[in-house]
Amino acid sequence: MKKPFIYITRKLPDDIVSDLRDEFYVEMWESEDVPVPREILLEKVKEANGLLTMLSDQINSEVFQHAPSLKIVANLAVGYDNIDIKSANKFKVAVCNTPDVLTDTTADLTFGLLLATARRLTEASEFVKSGEWTSWSPMLLAGTDVHHKTIGIFGMGKIGEAVAKRAKGFEMEIIYHNRSRKQNVEKDVGARYVEFEELLTHSDFLVCLAPLSPETKETFKKEQFAKMKKSSFFINAARGPIVNENDLYVALKNGLIKGAGLDVFDQEPINRDHQLLTLKNVVALPHIGSATVETRTKMMSVCVENVKRVLSDQKPITIVNEEWLTN
Fold first, then answer.
1. Which of 14, 40, 72, 215 keeps 20 to 30 A from 117, CA to CA?
2. Carries keyword rRNA processing (predicted)?
3. Burial (Cβ within 10 Å: 0-12, 13-18, ≥19) of residue 139
4. Residues 139 and 160 in one domain
5. Pick from 239, 252, 237: nearest CA to 80
């Protein structure tokens, strides 16, 4: 009997993949860093029963139309804005993600990015490494205090909750805006729900952690930056398209806000000549929110388990399109 075929769109560690090879025929794209070319992906899905994908892979209706035997797309991420869920439902394909296992890791990175931006840590590190540190002065690379300031969280999901807990340790005032109120967060860390307008005007650090959707796309534009404090910082560890990058650049360049910490961008990887990278008051990271060895290994294991379960006619650990369960 022919083994089910699984295609993995990026090279993963052998010890992760070996768990699949006993039951399935597995192929992987050869590179860890370079995305699988579109034409190769479309060719491989013609025979694939399962796909293990990265956030950079656009799994749209074209892919599903080329994949008559496909039963599951396991996405190595919490977000799944790279996958056309309507098409997945139409073709009766399960879409799985990796929530929960990366919550604390991403919250650590988000708060670290906030600290690095406020205290100018990357700028200071480069200052030392480039040999510019020749003396000490009272205001040398002076940054901004984080403790006792106000953090505003846009998107109070599980990662937002974890960031709020870290902010409590810095004795920050915690405000948030979300589609719905989170009574447990208000009780546990003293967070206060506010309307979006107050989030903009009151936050010293505005942290974006909302999922990307048609409703959240370009939530932050010139009008929003103009309402923020001139002393405030914008931190984005969610998705790049939630922000209009040109408007953010103008706001930073003209002093409408003081600085920005960005782990995500509209187009990734970002071009080295991008205008945001010319600004000293921008800390830029290469989308590494969940990038620890421990967490990425757990994420891969969840993907593998989801693939095994769906191809064995079992319910997966995590499912994005609940509609699939009733198909």
1. 215
2. no
3. exposed
4. yes
5. 239
204/236 same-domain check: yes
Is 26 strand, coil or helix?
strand
Intra-chain end-to-end CA distance of the chain, in Å: 26
Looking at residue 1, its pLDDT comes to 59
- Same structural domain, 137 and 60: no
92 and 214 belong to one structural domain = no
DSSP string over 123-150? HHHHHHHTT---S--TTTT-----TT-E
Report if pTM > 0.85: yes
Q: Is 11 helix (H, G, I), strand (E, B) or coil?
A: coil
Sheet holding 282-284, edge to edge: 192-193, 173-177, 150-154, 205-208, 233-236, 259-262, 282-284
Are 113 and 198 in the same domain? yes
Q: What does the pLDDT read at residue 168? A: 97
Q: Is 109 helix (H, G, I), strand (E, B) or coil?
A: helix
Residue 83 sits in the same domain as residue 145: no
Active-site pick, 177, 239, 296, 309: 239
Question: For position 324, what pLDDT does the model report?
Answer: 74
Q: Are residues 261 and 114 in the same domain?
A: yes
The one catalytic residue among 43, 197, 223, 268: 268
What is the total count of domains within the chain? 2
Tokens of 27: 């192929």
**Is the four-CA dihedral 301, 305, 307, 308 of positive or negative sign?**
positive
pLDDT at 97 over 70: yes
- Long-range contact pairs involving 179-182 (C-beta distance under 8 Å, separation at least 24): 182/156
Active site residue 268: yes
Range of the domain at 24: 5-100+293-326
Q: From the candidates 10, 166, 287, 309, which is the catalytic residue?
A: 287
Residues 113 and 90 placed together within one structural domain of the fold: no
- CATH number (domain holding residue 47): 3.40.50.720
CA dist list (Å): 281 to 157, 192, 224, 307, 311: 28, 29, 19, 43, 49
What's residue 323's pLDDT? 81
